[in-house]
């Protein structure tokens, strides 16, 4: 039930066919059993969500497709992250560097690691997880570059360190950190960073 609800959240802008849900979550079940599993799952989700708002139809069925009710007032961190990242890119392209950095920092705060990390073995969330991860890496590269352009090497160091927390094998970030540590007269940290790069 939780996995199906998460999938509906990811697809909340578009309806999801029953057949799509069945193929994702019960691929090996016979057709009748799979339909029954889907009905029980949707009933369970509606029941749980209905405890907080009993008079609201949280999940709507139309033309053989399920979707979250478009009238629900939802705040989703993934959507807020995408919004802040888009805003930062637009501001950066307009040359508004300070405001762009602020938008990027807001987006950075929203990224808390891999999307649905608890669903580690599931394929249904992999494309969105990878897209979000690449977006976070792009954000941190932009933040590091702009921070350096603003003569703030410490902020650039922080962005590269966060980036390596997501992707320890990003060789360019390792190199940039070595350069930054040398610039900050911290050669011992540059050596440690080289070793960390080699180990990664």
Task: Give a brief description.
With 200 residues, this protein is mainly α. Helix content is 67%, strand content 5%. The longest helix is centred in the last third of the chain and has 24 residues, at 126-149.
Q: Can you give a write-up of this model?
A:
- The protein is mainly α.
- Helices cover 67% and strands 5% of the residues.
- It is built from 9 helices and 3 strands.
- It has helices spanning 2-10, 18-25, 31-52, 77-93, 97-110, 126-149, 153-166, 171-183, 187-199, and strands at 16-17, 59-62, 65-68.
- The chain has a 3-stranded antiparallel beta sheet.
- Strand 2 and strand 3 form a beta hairpin.
- Helix 4 (77-93) runs antiparallel to helix 5, helix 5 (97-110) runs antiparallel to helix 6 (126-149) and helix 8 (171-183) runs antiparallel to helix 9.
- The longest helix has 24 residues, at 126-149.
- It starts with a helix and ends with a helix.
- The model has no long low-confidence stretch (mean pLDDT 94).
What are the defining features of this structure?
three-stranded antiparallel sheet, 67% helix, 9 helices, 200 residues, mainly alpha
How would a textbook summarize the main sheet? 3 strands, antiparallel
Helix % is 55-70%
Q: Largest beta sheet: what is the strand line-up?
A: 1-3-2
Order of helices and strands: HEHHEEHHHHHH
N- to C-terminal distance: 38 Å
Q: Structural class of the secondary structure composition?
A: mainly alpha
Low-confidence stretches: none
- Determine the strand fraction and express it as a percent band: 5-15%
Number of strands: 3
Question: Over the alpha carbons, how many angstroms does the gyration radius reach?
Answer: 22 Å
Mean of residue pLDDT?
A: 94
Shape: elongated
Number of helices: 9
